[in-house]
Amino acid sequence: MKLFIIHGWAYSIEPWQNTVDNLREQGVEVVQLKVPGLTEPSNEIWTVEKYVAWLGEQLVHEDHPIVLGHSNGGRIAMHFDVEHPGKFRKLMLLNSAGIEIRSERLSVKRRIIRIAAKLLKPLKHIPGLKKLVYRLLGSDYGNAPKNMQATLAHMLASDRSFDATKVTAPTSILWGEADTTTPLAMGKKLHQLISQSTLKTIPDWHHAPYRTHPEQLATEILKILEDTA
Question: At residue 110, does pLDDT exceed 60?
């Protein structure tokens, strides 16, 4: 069985290696897609629409692929499914981004980043200040090159209008209950909106279980693959 993985907002696929090795030992053919601007070099500003077109190019020769999207990768995969209904045999969403939830449910980190952005706006001409503050906050935005800062802004803006009820692929949702980047409320909301979906939550998982629980993540993925007709 073949599995395509679309990683999240990260600049290396190396942290996935233990999970991938576990899957391959069980006979799964794993294809890790390198996302332009992140693990594939690109100076362009990317939109969700451009990422959907990119994913189409990666899957052009695949007949009903099984796709796992983590975080931003889940966002891309859901948009692709809406544009190409019936293409996916199975969609797995791992702590996915892609929808907005009510502001009081946003993670503390995200709220702090938004507040910091507002406070820094009048001070934008002070060299290095913005970068320093975002580094202290551990923000993906602050660590990103300028084209990817604009890309991330496009990604977040797309969440405001995305209608997850239009996702038609059979969807298995895996979520860490300790995730503060994409909180569990998002996973529950996606499960509510996607008609053909299941939701499984794992208490100890944070946002990146491939780093902290690679064997357990591989086991959960294998269970989904075994149940995929």
Answer: no
